[in-house]
Design brief:
By secondary structure, this protein is of the alpha/beta class. The chain has 7 helices and 10 strands. Helix 5 packs parallel to helix 6. The protein is globular.
């Protein structure tokens, strides 16, 4: 298994957000996680992405238990093995599309990464936008740039937190289809967190986070 969560719980003070989360995700497998606002979806995704630590329980990625790693080791895993897409694209406004995509490669830049960036941008229909800045793009285009940025280092796990939440229906549908296609083309495991049943149904496996557990 690529990702394994065992008896994950997370509390903030006396508020228990996650109670007993168990999940196994195979390499390349796509899943959607749905649930109402406040159910802990983003908290769970942050734990999967090694951005947060559980109150109890264990998580392993590619056979490696993450609970005993240093922050520097976790940062390396986040950079090399995990891609993140958020509801807001978080592109740097002063940088071009190509520069934004290449930001995760700054620790180890090489010509191959730039070639990959250009190929991926072409794949998502943005070849003509390489030198544009985010302010010159539509919301849907900015999210496609964010998808390419998340994939640039060829991660094994792609985490998407309400990636269509700020888009209109047409752009949201297009982005959902694009994520499903890239999941297959790149062979990357995909965890898509969404409140949209329409988007979730594009994934072959849908889980619901309810009462602090996955069902």
């Amino acid at each position: 298994m690529l990702l394994e969560l065992s008896h994950i719980a997370k509390s903030y003070g006396t508020v228990e957000v996650l109670k007993e989360v168990n999940l196994q995700l195979a390499a390349g497998e796509p899943i959607a996680i749905i649930g109402p606002s406040g159910s802990g979806k983003s908290t769970l995704l942050n734990i999967m992405g090694a951005l947060d630590v559980p109150t109890r329980g264990t998580m392993s990625l590619d056979g490696r238990d993450l609970s005993h790693l240093t922050e520097n080791e976790l940062a390396g895993i986040r950079n090399r093995q995990i891609g993140f897409i958020f509801q807001l694209h978080h592109l740097l406004p002063q940088c071009t599309v190509l520069e934004n995509v290449l930001i995760p490669t700054l620790a180890s830049p090489n010509a191959d990464r730039q070639e990959r960036a250009e190929q991926l941008l072409d794949r998502v229909g943005l070849k003509h936008r390489l030198t544009h800045r985010p302010g010159q793009l539509s919301g849907g285009e900015c999210q496609r740039v964010a998808v390419v940025r998340a994939l640039i280092n060829q991660p094994k796990l792609l985490l998407a937190d309400e990636p269509t939440g700020s888009l209109d229906h047409a752009a949201a549908t297009n982005l959902g289809q694009l994520l499903a296609e890239l999941n297959k083309e790149e062979g990357v495991a995909l965890v898509l967190v969404t409140h949209s049943l329409e988007l979730a149904r594009q994934m072959p496996r849908v889980l619901e986070l309810r009462d602090g557990e996955l069902h």
